[in-house]
Design a protein that fits this description.
By secondary structure, the chain is of the alpha/beta class. Helix content is 34%, strand content 31%. The strands form two sheets. Strands 6, 7, 8, 9, 10 and 11 form a six-stranded mixed β-sheet that branches. A five-stranded mixed β-sheet has the order 3-2-1-4-5, sandwiched between helices. It is globular and about 50 Å long.
């Protein structure tokens, strides 16, 4: 099975192509950009260029896997729309993968607690904790939006004696803000969201039609939060 992975959940964006045959997984190609260009400008051109470079037609792809959230509201929508459009045109299934879960796959081969963190603004992180031991990843918490103080207390209270690794686009901020937590940063080469990890995580998610694929935001967009706040004030 050929899987096309997409990620547009944060500033960095990527696409990847992998092949799964039985228990063997081959990562064929990956394209990654970390610029200020919007994903609407870069994502599909990256896919086209990547497929052309390896001589594989998109018609041969069997599954589209995409980070469905959490993350940037705009980025998630762009990624989901691209996945839905491709899956519909090709008449193939797609899979919406947790951005945080895919980040844990960046740390395959590590040992300890992987703390996947994305900057959710307003002194919050999108976060999930995972136990990683070699090729085994076990989810500890659900995806959630937590305050820096809540995350600090949980890590110190429950995992103070464990090796903790921050991974994700919020890793550097977490490392700075939670400086009393004994933790280390994932290497920069695997710190950010990667479409290759989306491909690897896809087998754990239900395949859906393009119509069924939906973004996962975890909290309301800022405009909606502000609107509700005005209503409550009135």
């Amino acid at each position: 099975m050929l899987i096309l992975g997409l990620d547009a959940s944060a500033v960095a964006g990527s696409c990847a192509l992998c092949e799964i045959k039985g228990e063997k997984t081959t990562m064929i190609s990956e394209s990654f950009v970390n610029t200020k260009l919007t994903h609407s400008q870069t994502l599909l051109p990256m896919v086209e260029s990547m497929l052309k470079s390896v001589g594989i037609s998109i018609d041969n792809v069997n599954l589209i896997a995409v980070t469905a959230g959490p993350g940037s509201f705009t980025g998630i929508r762009i990624g989901a729309a691209a996945a839905k459009g491709l899956a519909y045109a090709l008449d193939i299934p797609c899979a919406g993968v947790s951005t945080l879960h895919s980040l844990a796959y960046n740390c395959l081969g590590a040992e300890g607690i992987v703390c996947a963190v994305m900057d959710a603004r307003c002194n919050q992180f999108y976060n999930a904790l995972f136990s990683v031991k070699g090729s085994t990843i076990q989810r500890i918490t659900p995806d959630r939006a937590v305050s820096a103080d809540e995350l600090r207390s949980e890590l110190i209270r429950n995992y103070g004696d464990c090796k903790i690794t921050f991974v994700g686009d919020g890793a550097e901020l977490a490392y700075k803000v939670l400086n009393d937590v004994r933790a280390e940063l994932a290497p920069v080469t695997v710190r950010f969201q990667r479409a290759s990890s989306v491909c690897l995580a896809a087998s754990e998610y239900r395949q859906t039609s393009s119509r069924e694929l939906l973004p996962v935001y975890l909290r309301l967009p800022q405009a909606e939060r502000e609107r509700l706040a005005k209503i409550n004030i009135q």
